[in-house]
Amino acid sequence: MKHITAFALYLVFLPFFVPSMGVAQERPPSPVRYTEAKEHEVRRAIQLPGSVEAKTSSLVASEVEGLVVDLVAHEGQAVRKGQPLVGLRKDHLELELEAGKAELREADARLKQAKRNLDRSQELFDSKVLSSEQLDDSRYESDAWQGKVDQLSSDIARLELDISRSTVRAPFSGIVVAERTDLGQWVGKGQPVLELMSLYELEVRVEVPERHFRELTAGATTQVSFEALPGYEVEGQVVAIIPRANPQARTFPVKVKITNKEARIGVGMLAKVSLPAGESYRATVIPKDAVLTRGDQRFVYRLNGDSTVDMVPVKTGARVGQWVEIQGTFEPGTKVITRGNERLRPGQKVQGEYLEYALP
Q: Which helix (H) or strand (E) holds 189?
């Protein structure tokens, strides 16, 4: 009887538990930021292959001759500007420096004595006790010791400079790409000790067909992608348009500067550069932050009136600063998710907050 009573109580209270369980399982809306698609003037772009080059590359040489006693930096190592790279033997220079300083102390003492003698000689000359020839002798002695002090000071400065130069330092921040010396090797003045390359700022060299030459503009913003890095893009800037064509291919070299902040781009990589060229036209644009890439596919999360999102495949076109052209997908005013879109799924409820993007 007790078991029947307990079961009856369970049936009575079951309706109260079931709704509360459902509420507990319901996920709250995900917070996101969104903006609206806009109409803006853009220029057509041409896609051209290019090759990544180092903007700064140097054979770092020794400014003094000497025996290599320390190899601080090695191939593949990142170094900062001013960091020691190679150390040369310098104990003989340090001995010369100590000897020179001792000579300088003696010469300085002699100079002070000569100046005191000159002052006394001048007083005796003014009192007509000393002849002009004797006064000149005192002056010549003082000048001679002054010259000796100046010479020794110059020698000491040179030795101190040679000692500091015995440590070869990085002239800029970069990567050691080749070692040109080894421990125990004698290097001469001006002889390379290693090769250093800067990877923070790179250049992409593009060969532009002559029919597009007049459409190029120095300072134009470009988009650069890489064959070895699918889905990875960086913004570039046209820094040089060389007005001399390759006589065989009839193409003009163009240099595009890019920043390698994440150190993912290597020198020699194949690149694809999107260069603005041709006439401008009106198009629908959205912020680049709204475009997600998975493999070769690109898509955008669209915010609907019921606070749900749809995942919409898109094709992009010309770039305009932080904005990108969307070809035939959205009308101006369409709301697109720009923050928090990486964690969304189609049909998900969201809580959106408007985020303003300035048009260029």
A: none
